Every structure is written in structure tokens, then in C-alpha cells.
Amino acid sequence: MKSITFTNNLSSELMEWMETYSTRQKLTRRAVLEKALNDFRKSVRQNEYAHSFKKASLDLEIKNMAEDGMGDYFKELINLEK
10, 31, 45, 55: which could join 27 in a potential S-S bond, CB 3.0 to 4.6 Å? Predict the structure, then answer.
């Protein structure tokens, strides 16, 4: 993947922490920032999924479709046991 350079300002406290952490862990600052952003992106996606599942749980049509699908799935499992 192609790297892109960007410039940003951080608080001195956060920068000092990142310097200490990256030195202690033998990581580059770039690696620390990428890990933090990837973890944040994962957290945002998980929250979005959780929100969409909660929203879907309130939708009667989706509930019925899920129940029908689970019934079909159960029947297939029973057929496999025979």
C-alpha cells in the first residue's frame, strides 16, 4: 500500500508519551500511530455493527426473516444427522 505523508499537531504530553512508548517497545512512531488508528477503526466498525443489529432487532420484518432462516437451518442440521 502506498504511504501518504501528512502533518498534524499533537499535545506535548501525548507526543512525550508516544516517544517513551515507542522507545520502550522498539517501535517507530509511525507504527504506534498506525496501530492506534487501526484499533480505533476496528472499534468504530464494531460500534456501527452493534448499532445496526440493535436497530434490526426492533424491525418485525427482519425478526421474522431471521426466525424463518433459523428454522430452515435447523431442518438442514436435522437432515444431516440422518
Answer: 31
